[in-house]
Amino acid sequence: MTLTDVGGEVLPIDFIVVGNRRREDYGDIDALAQSILRYGLFHPIVIDDDGHLVAGERRLRACSHLEWTHVDVRRLGT
Asked: What's the pTM?
């Protein structure tokens, strides 16, 4: 079973719009990136219908850190 089988998509990271966020400390992005590289991305990035980030900024940063160009996303209808 793939993400697209359960309503997910794979989109370019550049498509995702990251607006003003409240988080000031992103923690250890390198460690998260290494975990994603080793085990995979268990939870997709969540975006709204317009491509704005809803949840998963740390995961998105970690995937960018890994130089991924695309990422698994799930759309949250607005």
From this structure: 0.83
